[in-house]
Amino acid sequence: MNLNSDNFERQLTEWRHYLHAHPESAFEEKHTSEFLAVVLTDMGLEVHRNIGGTGIVANLTVGDGKGIIGIRSDIDAINLTEVGKHPYTSQNPGKMHACGHDGHMATVLGAAKLLTERKNFNGTVRFIFQPAEETGKGAFAMMQDGLFERFPVDEIYGMHNMPGMPAGSISTRAGGIMASEDNFVIRIKGQGSHASSPHMGKDPIVIASEIVLALQTIISRNMNPNVPAVISCTEFITDGIRNAIPTNVEIKGDTRSYTTEVQKLLEERMRTISEGICQINGAECQFEYTHEFAPTVNWADCVEIAVKAAQNVVGDNNVDGNCQPWMASEDFGAFLQKTPGCFVFIGNGDDSEGIGNVPLHNSSYDFNDKILTIGAEYFAELIKVRLPK
């Protein structure tokens, strides 16, 4: 693989295709991390490895400015079998870059290349390559390993591709842009019986069904209609067979919201409803609720900077500074709880373009190579705007 290509677009595409062909999942990104470290070192950056496991921080200082800005990319892949015939299809069975982190890495490498060559800013940029975004654990791992103490930043910026948005367009918003993710498990223990004699048991399927329906009333009757929240029951597991009513049922799912107050309300109401329905039906209930992803809440001042940089690169008509929030989760939010920053979406392509509109986490998904240079120019322009000479 040629790491010294004179063609910027071709170089980013080569990096992206190589990373796509060699996906590694959360905290296993050893080859990916080594590849990134070599490329960054070849650029002349000061590279620090093994931050939070397989994370990397690469520093670039120009001039004597005191400002320090972080640019972050996620680096992990998903445990999914790729369906595709392109030459760079995943070579690691059961793993693929189905969320575009290969493109994110290539984009930030591109920004580093631009900034090392142009040196049109005054201060320090830290390029942060974070493991294990998909599990929601990578940002915390890096911070527990002293990320911001060892490599302090004034602000941090990130980006995620968005299928369905016009290719290369950029959108963001002040406040909540991506939701928290909390997981729950509701275990119901009734009393099994023969299917012909339901009166001799305590049917946990009926009880669990009541709970699933009742949980939806939390959003419709306990939440302010202007405040976004989601409760989704995604698994319904029993220990029964066709001609026997089971004893145990397990309901699994997750919730999405933007504030700790809503998270608390959802947890408390879900627990009360689940335990109450079980009690009136004479069943036992075990309720578990865990916090997996923090909400991604942009800082208003940083949004202004991000919007200005985006407008400079793609034009006013291709930038939305007050987009609709997305109820998916992204552990960049953990960074924003510790330091100011902004997260943006870059369009991967829509139906009219015929490319880039396959949904994330789909076995046929692929990052749109045409937006790599746009994303790199955006980050480079952001640094120029934020750390002027």
UniProtKB/TrEMBL annotation:
Cofactor binding, note field: The Mn(2+) ion enhances activity.
Record domain Peptidase M20 dimerisation: where: 184-274
Keywords: Hydrolase, Manganese, Metal-binding
InterPro entries in UniProt: Amidohydrolase, Bact_exopeptidase_dim_dom, Peptidase_M20, Peptidase_M20_dimer
GO biological process: diaminopimelate biosynthetic process
Gene Ontology MF terms: metal ion binding; N-acetyldiaminopimelate deacetylase activity
Binding locations of Mn(2+): C99, H101, E134, H160, H361
Cofactor (UniProt): Mn(2+)
CDD domains documented for this protein: M20_Acy1-like (cd05666)
Matches recorded under NCBIfam families: amidohydrolases
Protein name, entry field: Amidohydrolase
Source organism: Neobacillus rhizophilus
